[in-house]
Every structure is written in C-alpha cells, then in structure tokens.
Amino acid sequence: MIRYDHVGLRYGIGPEVLSDISFNLDPGSFHFLTGPSGAGKTSLMTLLYLGRKPTRGIISMFGQNIGAMTREQLVPIRQRVGVVFQDYRLMNHLSAFDNVALPLRIAGKPEKEIKNNVEELMHWVGLGDHMNALPNTMSGGQQQRISIARAVITRPRLLLADEPTGNLDDEIGFRLMGLFEQLNRMGTTILIATHSQVMMDKFNHSRLILDKGSMTVVPPKPKAMEGAA
Predict the structure, then answer these.
(1) 50: left (phi > 0), else alpha (psi -120 to 50), else beta?
(2) Disulfide-capable partner of 73 in 6, 69, 92, 112 (CB 3.0 to 4.6 Å)?
(3) The pLDDT of residue 227 is above 80
C-alpha cells in the first residue's frame, strides 16, 4: 500500500532530516514508528499524511506516485488516511460530538447514520457522557480521545497516530490500542509513532526505528518467541 524508495527530506538549504528512507507498509499491516527525540519521526509523519513532498526519492501510496500528482489529485488519497495529531487539532467551537462527526458530514453521510456511529464510538472511548462538551473545557487526555475517535470514524485504509496514548493512563491507553488492533483486523493499515517501550513490548508489531534521519526496520517476533517471552 505504501512504498518509500530512497526518500530524503530537507528544509530549505539545511542538511537532510531524513536520509535514504526505504520501507513498505503492506495492506492490513501494523507498525510502530520509534526512535529518540529529534530522529525525524514528525518529519516522516508529515510525509505520510501528505503534508509535504520529499526533496528526493519516490513515494507510492495506494499504487500511485505521489510526487507526480497535483494538489487536486492528492485529495482522494488524503481521504483514505486518518491522522491522530499529537496536538489534537480539534475545532474548539464545536462540541466533542460534532468534532468526531465532522469527517462523516464532509463525506455527506445521513445524519441518522452519523448519530449512531458517533455515539457508539464515543461510548467506546469512554466519552459517552461528554458528547456536548467543548474541547477547551476537557482534559488533555479527553481531547486526545476525541482526536482518535475523529480519525477512525471513517474507517480509513491507513491510520497514522502520533503518540496517541501519550496523555492517557495505562488502562485507557491499552483500551485504545485494542481499538487500533480491531481496526487493523478489519483491514486498516496502522502506523503509530511512540516512545512507549511498554506499549511496543505489549503489542508485537513491526518497528520502524529512526535514528539521525536513517531508518532500521525490525520485524515482529515470531509467535513462538513471543509466547516464550
């Protein structure tokens, strides 16, 4: 589904922040993106959600060469990607319910379908009693859960999440990881940027490790080894 061939990225005339990045994300796969602060994770996430084009190399998404596409041609590609931003990027004048419903309304879904889907998902993430609350009246963890619900409400083909459990306690964090796992089983490709060693040890998935702009890909442990651990 996603293919990076010798991709590099620099800002202006500065040095490359990503250098010679090559990897594949197969349909229905699950990956962690990790590495020390300053390794280039945010820059790679920006490329993945099409916020910027690379300065060299080839990126293919859903079988199409991104570098050869116009801004208008990228719109249907972006619609297949759900993003959970670390800074939430919620609409503060809209209720929690309306923030989560926004992608469905943009897609022209019927209001009855929107109501049922949004209410079910908000109960699932533990915010069933906060549907009418405005984001700026809620805690950081609650806002993060709204952001996650908004990203997954359309069941995107690719879900990108930047530290989605960073502001959550372990119980809610593992519960939301369960939601990601469920989406993955339904066919969504998942990439989660995280510093949490506990989370990566708990869930046995491929790791894309960035360090000083270069990437190492570590496959998941074989099932027998996972059980022995």
Answers:
(1) left
(2) 69
(3) no
